[in-house]
Amino acid sequence: MLIFDKLLTGMFQKKNTGEIVFHLWGELGKSYIISRKTESTIKKISIAYYTFLFSMTLILGSIRLIYVFFLLFSIPIYVSILKYFLLNSKR
Fold first, then answer.
1. Mean pLDDT over residues 79-84, rounded?
2. pLDDT tier at 25 (50, 70, 90 boundaries)?
3. Which of 26, 38, 51, 63 meets the CB 3.0–4.6 Å disulfide criterion with 89?
4. In this structure, are residues 53 and 74 in contact, taking their beta carbons and an 8 Å threshold?
5. Residue 23: predicted pLDDT
6. How many structural domains are present in the chain?
7. Which UniProt keywords apply (predicted)?
């Protein structure tokens, strides 16, 4: 059973053994075995990130150039936060 989260977050895969495997966006071939607590943490971070992006879209929507730079710089920060949680999570 595959559960697709937002495109930027990655993909959760629940195996028959009960393990939750997370495939981070932008890292082909790499996957992380995570716990349920880490899964919920990643989902909370994703919700906060997309809420932040939505609010920035409303605020900076009229200033297109600044918005484009904001998007380009926010995605790597978001992915690095996710990697931190993935690498420091206990299985």
1. 81
2. low
3. 38
4. yes
5. 76
6. 1
7. Membrane, Transmembrane, Transmembrane helix
Tell how far CA 21 is from the center of its chain: 14
User: Looking at beta carbons, which pairs linking 37-43 to residues 24 or more positions away fall under 8 Å?
Assistant: 37/89, 38/85, 38/86, 38/89, 39/12, 41/85, 41/89, 42/5, 42/9, 42/82, 42/85, 42/86, 43/5
- How many angstroms separate the CA atoms of 39 and 47, rounded? 12
Residue that the structure tokens 């349920």 belong to: 36
Amino acid identity for residue 84 in this structure? Y
Tokens describing residue 90:
């206990």
Q: Where in the sequence is the domain holding 23, given as residue range(s)?
A: 2-87
